[in-house]
Design a protein that fits this description.
alpha+beta; binds nickel (II) ion; about 270 residues; Jelly Rolls; eight-stranded antiparallel β-sheet; four-stranded antiparallel β-sheet; binds succinic acid
């Protein structure tokens, strides 16, 4: 920690090279973001959050459903589980997201536990995230934080470097996926080979909402447990599109998405 005129400043949690890598490629791997103690605490809390009854968090499909085969997902676990709130609102992770995007203030849009269950698991098809978010701007990004080591056998991610430069394309149906590469005008010129990113627990990736990404099916005998956090720069405005986190929230089209429901978690000092 540095002291600056009474204010406590966090050590810069990413390097200049990592920021440049993110901006050039649309994703970046950051190692040892969480300690092993934090990972263990978060894993235990996420087990509870996934099995306990929710008041505010929303599960997107029931066990055995078609979407559940791709992802067993619960959105906004932080609103029901105090220990998950500690991680979903984690200042260091939010500050990394802020520095990567270059925003002066960063808000949480939502968290989601993204588990890939063992047996009968399907890949998460190639897609961009931005088409599903009800935002006019495209600077929002995700942190993807596994609490288990991940590789090609249990559902690690793959990214296409530079694909964020394609802009916002059409959303992909996760159950009957279209081929996102068909939407790219000049594939040979514009797209690089996908990069597989295995991770050790405690490490994570950040990816832009525009970056093409995919996750392998989980062929192991245990759940692949991930917490994903969606961040948006302060000032991001509502597009009017439907989304589980903004439906019935009373937002007018083009109004900033703000307030304590979408808290500011990092700000430039
Ligand atoms: C996954 O965890 O399988 C997919 C994550 C994502 O689409 O961002
Ligand atoms: Ni995604």
């Amino acid at each position: 920690m540095n002291q600056t005129k009474g204010m406590v400043r966090m050590e810069m949690p990413v390097t200049r090279e990592q920021i440049e890598f993110y901006r050039e490629n649309g994703f970046v791997q950051i190692d040892n973001v969480l300690t092993q103690e934090e990972v263990a605490e978060m894993a235990e809390a996420m087990e509870e959050a996934m099995t306990e009854k929710s008041v505010n968090a929303v599960k997107t499909d029931k066990s055995g459903g078609s979407y559940y085969r791709v992802l067993n997902q619960k959105v906004n676990v932080w609103r029901d589980h105090g220990v998950m709130a500690k991680y979903s609102l984690h200042p260091k992770v939010a500050e990394i997201a802020r520095l990567l995007s270059g925003a002066s203030k960063m808000r949480l849009f939502h968290d989601h536990a993204l588990w890939k269950m063992p047996e009968d698991s399907k890949a998460t098809p190639w897609h961009q995230d931005a088409p599903y978010w009800p935002m006019n701007q495209t600077q929002a990004l995700s942190a993807w934080i596994p609490v288990d080591d991940v590789d090609e056998k249990n559902g690690c991610m793959m990214f296409v470097p530079g694909s964020h430069k394609e802009g916002k394309l059409k959303g992909i149906d996760f159950l009957e996926p279209q081929n996102i590469f068909d939407y790219v005008q000049d594939k040979e010129a514009n797209l690089k080979k996908p990069v597989v990113v295995p991770l050790k627990k405690g490490s994570c990736t950040f990816h832009s909402g525009l970056t093409f990404h995919y996750a392998y099916p989980n062929m192991s005998d245990k759940p692949r447990r991930v917490l994903a956090l969606i961040y948006m720069p302060d000032g991001t405005t509502y597009s009017g599109a439907g989304h589980i986190c903004t439906d019935n929230f009373g937002l007018q089209k083009d109004e900033p998405i703000r307030g304590g429901t979408f808290p500011i978690l990092a700000r430039e000092i």
